[in-house]
Amino acid sequence: MKALKAILCALAMLGGAAHAGSxxxxxxxxxxxxxxxxxxxxxxxxxxxxxxKHDDEAKIPVxxxxxxxxxxxxxxxxxxxxxxxxxxxxPGSRAELTDYRNSGYDKGHIANxxxxxxxxxxxxxxxxxxxxxxxxxxxxxxxxxTLEVDVRVWAFQTNHKFKSYVGPIYDQKDKTIGANSxxxxxxxxxxxxxxxxxxxxAFVFPHVETSTGKLSDYQVTPRYVETATGxxxxxxxxxxxxxxxxGSNLKAFMNSKSAGCSIN
Length: 264
Hints:
This protein has 264 residues and is α+β, with helices and mostly antiparallel strands. The protein has a single domain, classed as Extracellular Endonuclease, Chain A. The chain is built from 8 helices and 12 strands. The protein has helices at 2-15, 70-73, 97-100, 120-125, 137-140, 143-158, 222-229, 250-262; strands at residues 19-20, 42-46, 51-55, 60-68, 106-109, 132-135, 162-169, 176-177, 182-183, 187-194, 200-206, 219-220. Strands 1-2-3-4-7-10-11-12 form an 8-stranded antiparallel beta sheet. The longest helix is centred in the middle third of the chain and has 16 residues, at 143-158. The chain is globular.
């Protein structure tokens, strides 16, 4: 397993993308095309395992796009917690660690760390602040995390690729934190497409302390997400349709991941 980790890390380093202003090197993250939005003062950013459009005024991502495979869902690299500003963005147009300090908010991942734990490079890049927004801990560690785990289980048990569009919902009325006025979103969205079946699930989570319950409580149509965000997403499913949420066998997933990560 150690040898496999080294190979995956080396491949990530060789094939990795790190570009600002262009998404050309991240074409694999856009199975159905790049999301479209009319918004000034943004920067397109391409990293090894995800791409994003960064709002240089709000200092948070507009959207983050990435694809998860069964193999990557079972990544073994440990969480580093090495948060840092994105070096591809200029100071003054990005969030800094000091903005979050004593704010009362988590540095909440948009593309979550566990989905990026398949190489040292991708795991570390997941902690760039361009991939973060201020997030209430109860949501970050609650129903938001539940969905993140379920997507990994779906990828594992189907052996399909899952395309995710994730991001905040925010406007000029939302509060800010820090000297760089990092916007605190009032909600979050996530759309997940099974690229084999072409079915899409869409969710919107209000940014409140009481975000509990079942995933079905937060399920919406893809069109609802587009209306709430002003973003046009290219997906292969009916945007007015709400599909049944796929079942998940968490125990089987955890057993497989534990066994794979324990092999020397």
